Amino acid sequence: PVPALNRFAGDVVLAFDRFRAPLTEAEIERRSPDSLKPDEFRNLCQWGYPYVFETFRFHMTLSGRVASQESPRLRAAIDSLFTEVLLRPVLVDALTLFVETEPGAPFMVLSHHALGRRSARKTA
């Protein structure tokens, strides 16, 4: 857990929620609401995602669903790629806004925004 990152994530949810399309009943069901804890279900209904604010944990989705027999092989590949990288702090220096043009469509980059003071940013 990184408290500053968690606060930043919460601030982003609050600032951008007005741009979020309301969830459909199918989208709510896809999240298996009966398996969610009360706080997670409340977040799903209010914010469109169960894991925000107190229930947020930073994560990066690296693959689609993986069959259980493939999981150890994929885990080993991910560990070999990221173990050394994750020993150092990860710089969060930009916010990228993605859109899903229709349910199930690939996410597309709408805009990318550098964070921090302009004078402090370095570009190549």
Descriptive notes:
There is one protein chain. The protein is α+β, with helices and mostly antiparallel strands. The protein has one domain. Helices cover 34% and strands 12% of the residues. Strands 1-2 form a two-stranded antiparallel ribbon. It starts with a helix and ends in a 10-residue tail after the last strand. The mean pLDDT is 89.
Quick recap of the structure?
This protein has 124 residues and is an alpha+beta fold. The chain has helices spanning 3-16, 25-30, 38-47, 71-82, and strands spanning 94-100, 107-114.
**Beta-strand residue fraction:** 5-15%
Which value, in Å, is the CA radius of gyration? 17 Å
Largest sheet: 2 strands, antiparallel
How many domains, as an integer? 1
Q: How far is it from the N-terminal to the C-terminal residue, by CA?
A: 31 Å
The residue fraction in helices comes out at 25-40%
Total DSSP E strands:
2
Instruction: Provide mean pLDDT, rounded.
Output: 89
